[in-house]
């Protein structure tokens, strides 16, 4: 027996959690709030991918999780980037 | 287990459609870009659920990652140009 | 201990760890939705990032087909921790400077 049913149920819970976090992306008062929500979305997505990899038996989904981690880093860096002439500090 | 999988698919698809509508109907460019990044992420999850890891990889890297970063820069530049042209300040909510 | 009992205990531990990870993710999302200002939301976010994903990763680890994939999962977790810490620092610094609202 493998705990794949339990894993699938937990993946479903995480998916609903992600859908709730989307509310913050939509209403978030400042852009930083939206960025943070997108980051949490990426991390929950990695968790769902890991659980799906174990449930569906596709180990290659771990690579997709690695790309998700890269995506979060790249988008946060693009968000906080400043122009050269603007730097005050 | 099949019932659970069906429920999983239903939640996945319903949220995907709501997210796509919110992205397209968003009036503010920067919010639309954020929502587009989230949409690309969600679409990658859908491809993963369809047992297509390669396409999920490409979608996450190109569609959400590179496209999102480029669009963030473009939206920022557009906002700057708007301000420099003496545009209205109330456009940025 | 015989083989089936060991497998059963391993699966039980896996399920419990995954439940703990899901709990952390739920706490992080509730914090993101309910906390009043940006810094406290950032604080809730990083907990969910590091600990929640770590517990989920530990739960999936025994189900990995071979050592290579287990190592890849560990690498994934370390990468997420580095990216999360750096990202949180960047966002907080930008908000402290007070220019997070006007340009982008």
Automatic annotation (TrEMBL), chain A:
User: Which UniProt keywords are present, listed alphabetically?
Assistant: Cell membrane, Membrane, Transmembrane, Transmembrane helix, Transport
Q: Does the keyword Transport apply?
A: yes
The record's subcellular location field reads: Cell membrane
Where, by residue number, does the polypeptide cross the bilayer? 6-27, 39-58, 64-80
Quote a single Gene Ontology cellular component term.
plasma membrane
Q: Which family does it belong to?
A: Belongs to the CPA3 antiporters (TC 2.A.63) subunit F family.
Its recorded name reads Multiple resistance and pH regulation protein F
What organism is the protein native to? Halochromatium glycolicum
Taxonomic path:
Bacteria, Pseudomonadati, Pseudomonadota, Gammaproteobacteria, Chromatiales
TrEMBL record, chain C:
Would I find Zinc among this entry's keywords?
Answer: no
Instruction: Name the UniProt key words of this record, in alphabetical order.
Output: Membrane, Transmembrane, Transmembrane helix
Its domain of life reads Bacteria
- Keyword field contains Transcription regulation: no
What are this entry's molecular-function GO terms? Answer: sodium:proton antiporter activity
Record Pfam families: PhaG_MnhG_YufB
Residue spans crossing the bilayer: 6-32, 67-91
Record protein name field? Cation:proton antiporter
Task: Write down the species.
Answer: Halochromatium glycolicum
Q: What is the lineage of its organism?
A: Bacteria, Pseudomonadati, Pseudomonadota, Gammaproteobacteria, Chromatiales
């Amino acid at each position: 027996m493998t705990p794949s049913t339990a894993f699938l149920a937990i993946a479903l819970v995480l998916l609903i959690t992600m859908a709730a976090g989307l509310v913050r992306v939509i209403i978030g008062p400042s852009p930083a709030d939206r960025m943070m929500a997108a980051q949490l979305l990426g991390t929950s997505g990695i968790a769902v991918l890991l659980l799906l990899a174990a449930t569906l038996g596709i180990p290659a989904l771990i690579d997709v999780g690695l790309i998700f981690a890269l995506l979060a880093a790249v988008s946060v860096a693009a968000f906080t980037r400043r122009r050269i002439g603007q730097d005050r500090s | 287990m099949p019932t659970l999988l069906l429920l999983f698919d239903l939640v996945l698809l319903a949220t995907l459609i709501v997210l796509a509508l919110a992205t397209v109907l968003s009036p503010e460019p920067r919010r639309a870009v954020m929502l587009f990044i989230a949409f690309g992420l969600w679409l990658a999850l859908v491809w993963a659920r369809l047992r297509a890891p390669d396409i999920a990889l490409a979608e996450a890297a190109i569609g959400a990652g590179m496209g999102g970063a480029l669009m963030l820069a473009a939206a920022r530049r557009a906002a700057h140009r708007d301000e420099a042209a003496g545009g209205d300040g109330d456009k940025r909510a | 201990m015989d083989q089936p009992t060991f497998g059963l205990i391993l699966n039980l531990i896996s399920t419990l760890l995954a439940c703990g990870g899901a709990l952390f993710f739920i706490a992080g999302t509730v914090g993101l939705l309910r906390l009043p200002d940006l810094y406290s939301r950032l604080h809730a976010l990083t907990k969910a990032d590091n600990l929640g994903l770590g517990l989920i990763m530990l739960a999936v680890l025994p189900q990995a087909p071979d050592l290579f994939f287990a190592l890849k999962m560990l690498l994934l977790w370390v990468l997420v921790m580095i990216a999360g810490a750096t990202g949180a620092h960047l966002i907080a610094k930008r908000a402290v400077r007070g220019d997070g609202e006007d340009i982008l």
